[in-house]
What we know:
This protein is mainly α. It is 62% helix and 0% strand. The chain has a single domain, classed as Cytochrome Bc1 Complex, Chain D, domain 2. The longest helix has 25 residues, at 2-26.
Amino acid sequence: MKRILGCAVMAAFLGAAPLLAKKVEGNxxxxxxxxxxxxxxxxxxLRGDGKGPAAEPLLGHPVDFTxxxxxxxxxxxKIAETIKKGKEMMPAFDLxxxxxxxxxxxxxxxxxxxxxKKKMTGDEI
Length: 125
């Protein structure tokens, strides 16, 4: 009986998983990804490593989101403040709070795992 119930619960969850993923992708995550590509990727790069096409000539290189040190502290607040006020050569962007949250969601999902992997493998400088 437990096995049948467990299978039913798993089947229900797996059936709902694509719907949940689509909702996240289509809303906050998708908006964050689009905003990152339109406003951040040019400097921070496709991989979030701070090596975008415009990064080289900048005096202070853009933050590397794949560096585990970046993920220390209140990162969501750090990102929100930087987007609102700018930092060094990065201009401020006039984004709504939900847009900033979307950018943070995308950055954390897309690059945080790479940062942890680099730290575990010792690939960080």
